[in-house]
Design goal:
FAD/NAD(P)-binding domain, seven-stranded mixed sheet, alpha/beta, 2 domains, 17 strands, elongated
Length: 333
């Protein structure tokens, strides 16, 4: 099952607090819960800090290391901007050295109201608790293009490593950080790269030290880019691009669709949490306590932003942990 810190865990699966999600914010909540003496457990459907694990191998964070520290535990990196491997090492050491109670590879499949608390059902068993923190992030469900051919095996919504694409015809959809990183890295490994960009420029939130690089590669013609354009159809050996001048068909081996990701709205709704009726799907919660419209269910991290996944990051949502635990303590006798 993979439990760190096998200390007084309730034998009957009853907990004061269940934290859904073992990412950085879930770990931060666990650290605060431990300080408060709460009997808690983290339920994580994948590996520890699962989303970070699936980030591109060569990714460098935008934030400096001290801004993504949790629990006041120093994060020392070799450079000003920490890398993915450094972050994985840091959060793993936080979890193990603090003996955080975590069940890995255990997905939450349902949350239902029971008496004064909740029943949480997973792929392995069920639990009861009086409080729940949902800190599930947003990286697990890609925003689909919904075009013909998107289901082909040559199409991916997750970019990992550039070597695989060497000497291939690669099309990258998008113009923000993930798309720009994929385009530059695959180009430098020998791929022929084309970008399809919905807007008329590279995204404004692209890392400031990377933005000139991609703009210069496009300007010199090393990377081809279609602005104000969308991908229309994908076939085994080619793709159709809708441009301002009409349909353009180019040869293609792989499509890296960096179209963004979204929270697990199904779990939120199934739990009874209200979402705004607009395209943002903003979850209903009190910003002072992070408690949702469902008493005893709290939200932490990126999931709070709905489809606005660029609003919350590790560095500005770390405070959710202390807010929530303070709110839980206030409810206790």
């Amino acid at each position: 099952m993979g439990i760190f810190g096998i200390t007084q865990v309730a034998m009957d699966n009853q907990f004061d607090l269940i934290i859904v999600g073992g990412g950085p914010i879930g770990l931060a909540c666990a650290l605060e819960a431990a300080k408060a003496g709460l009997n808690y457990i983290i339920l994580e459907k994948g590996c520890l800090v699962n989303s970070l694990y699936h980030y591109p191998s060569n990714m460098t964070f935008f934030s400096t290391s001290e801004k993504i520290e949790i629990g006041g535990i120093p994060f020392v990196s070799n450079n000003v901007k920490p890398t993915r491997p450094e972050a994985l090492e840091y959060y793993r050491r936080v979890a193990t050295s603090n003996k955080l109670r975590i069940h890995l590879q255990e997905r939450v499949t349902g949350i239902s109201r029971r008496d004064k608390g909740y029943e949480v059902v997973t792929t392995k068993q069920q639990y009861s608790t009086s409080s729940i923190i949902i800190a599930t992030g947003f990286y697990d469900i890609p925003v689909l293009m919904r075009i013909p051919g998107e289901e082909l095996p040559k199409v991916t919504h997750y970019y990992k490593d550039p070597h695989f694409y060497a000497m291939q015809q690669v099309l990258v959809v998008g113009a923000n950080n993930s798309a720009v990183d994929a385009a530059l890295e695959t180009y430098r490994k020998g791929a022929t790269v084309t970008m399809v960009i919905r807007e008329n420029e590279i995204g404004k939130r692209v890392k400031y030290w990377v933005k000139p690089d991609i703009e210069n590669r496009i300007k010199e013609g090393s990377i081809n880019a279609f602005f104000n354009s969308t991908l229309k159809e994908i076939r085994s050996n080619e793709v159709d691009i809708q441009t301002p001048d009409g349909i353009v068909t180019i040869p293609n081996d792989y499509v890296i669709a960096m179209t963004g990701y979204q929270p697990d709205f199904q779990l939120l709704q199934q739990s009874g949490i209200k979402l705004s009726e607009d395209a943002v799907c903003q979850p209903d919660y009190d910003p002072d306590t992070m408690e949702s419209n469902m008493p005893g269910i709290y939200l932490a991290g990126v999931v709070c932003g709905g489809m606005n996944t660029h609003v919350w990051f590790i560095e500005n949502s770390r405070v959710h942990a202390s807010k929530i635990i303070d709110a839980i303590k206030m409810k206790q006798p």
